[in-house]
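Suppose a colleague, Dr. K., hands you the sequence of a protein chain of 151 amino acids and asks what its three-dimensional shape might be. Before reaching for any lab equipment, you can write down a predicted structure in token form. Begin with the sequence itself:
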Amino acid sequence: MHFKMKGIKILVAVFQLLAIIPLLAQTSGFHYFDHRKLTDIQGQVLSIDLNEVYGKKSAFLMISIQTEDQRLFKVEVCPQWFFATDIAVGMKVWIRGSQLENAAGKLYLIAQEISLHGERVALRDSKGFPLWSRHGAGNESRNGSGGRGKR
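The predicted structure, expressed as tokens, is then:
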């Protein structure tokens, strides 16, 4: 019986280690929304891209913004399917988000809300949980496909 319990404990430890390995591989490029690093930027959309930021789950809308003081930001907006508002290169936008700096020293923003032509679109709740996620607080406020995140 003693050997059986010890074998089970070892097996559980091995499975836990195997579960951690993929997470360790992600940490070098991993980033997260930090509500303590909120900032507002305003500027012009330079480019619009779709990237698989978090693996192959969903393509994320990514935009590049140049602010009035000539700073360049790469902005992670949300999954493409969640964003129901038209956006185009050259548009003036206001974005509130969590500011990060990547390894190359470039400015990166994870958007919490975005305003285009006076229409404000909420993307994350006050704690930074994505409104498109079933686990995010505030998920109950979505109004279906036509009102995703709109205020």
